[in-house]
Design a protein that fits this description.
single chain; seven-stranded mixed beta sheet; 7 strands; binds guanosine-5'-triphosphate; binds magnesium ion
């Protein structure tokens, strides 16, 4: 599969700015600094399309990226980078602004084909588990991706997967994709999952 185009469409700070619902969307949700923007760049083989930062709280708007590929099932869709949650240092006023924006986006978009919940492979938090429960409660059961697996040794992976499943309260057999934006590991598996989401 070839990526024919990947472009920044818009940055929305108000639901009125969300794009017209004319193609499938996939949204990326997760804690600040978990690697959402990096993962979008890695999937699209672009270094700097989504802005990445060492400082948590970089993405503060709903950022929409338009993608088209040579795969007929993935001809034209949007990837949506949502602001991260759970970063204490972000001022209260900004957090008050974010939460309804993310919630409105996730509850209101009828064109939303799937949600990807990112958790850090070494640190799963109570808030990650709460977010997962909330997504289930609004009927948006997410695909779970564990990020930054380049930081794990091969021998640590099986344990990490068990730990993540336990921390999130996953059922036996519920899938977790291991991903690294540094090595590109997991991109192939993730593309397959995105294709399945968009196709159905
Ligand atoms: N080692 C490693 N570092 C990563 C990976 N993905 C992201 N990072 C680093 O983690 C930090 C945060 O990455 P971002 O992609 O900006 O995270 P984000 O989830 O978009 O953060 P917010 O926009 O604040 O919500 C940056 O310093 C990245 O370089 C990865 O797969 N491996
Ligand atoms: Mg970001």
């Amino acid at each position: 599969m070839k990526i024919l185009a990947a472009e920044f469409i818009k940055s929305c700070v108000d639901p009125a700015q969300f794009p017209v619902e004319d193609r499938p969307e996939i949204a990326f949700v997760g804690r600040s600094n978990v690697g959402k923007s990096s993962l979008i760049n890695s999937l699209l083989h672009r270094r700097d399309l989504a802005k990445v930062s060492r400082t948590p709280g970089k993405t503060r708007a709903v950022n929409v990226f338009g993608v088209s590929t040579s795969d007929p099932d993935l001809a034209r869709f949007y990837l949506v980078d949502l602001p991260g949650y759970g970063f204490a240092k972000v001022s209260q006023s900004i957090r008050i602004q974010w939460k309804p924006l993310i919630e409105t986006y996730l509850t209101s978009r009828s064109i939303l084909a799937g949600v990807v919940l990112l958790v850090e492979s070494r640190v799963v938090t109570v808030q990650d588990r709460q977010t997962l429960a909330w997504l289930h409660s609004i009927g948006r059961a997410p695909l779970i991706v564990a990020t930054k697996v380049d930081k794990l040794r091969t021998s640590e992976r099986a344990d990490a997967l068990r730990r993540i499943s336990r921390a999130l309260g996953l059922l036996e057999g519920e899938m977790v994709i291991l991903h690294s934006s540094v090595t590109g590991e997991g991109n192939h598996q993730l593309w397959s999952a995105l294709r399945a989401m968009i196709k159905t």
